[in-house]
Amino acid sequence: MTAIQIRDVPEATRQVLIRAAAARDESLQVYLSEVLEQEARRVQNRELVSSYAANRRAGTRTDPVEMIREGREQRQQHIADAIQPRRK
Which domain holds residue 30? Predict the structure, then answer.
């Protein structure tokens, strides 16, 4: 995993986030990691919809079932890569 550092966060914002994490009985790190993952999924969904819309405008027929299958295969490969021991 990668570390992300965010500078110059207003103290009021930090306090709100700490309270939100505490309300879910999570650390701030876990809470913010989940927030970032949710946003990444939203971005991926928007990209998928945009890609599909662009293909429709271009007259390209894209099978939604095939797009979902490809997305699942990519996700499975990503998971397999993540849990596979790294070789040097």
Answer: 11-83
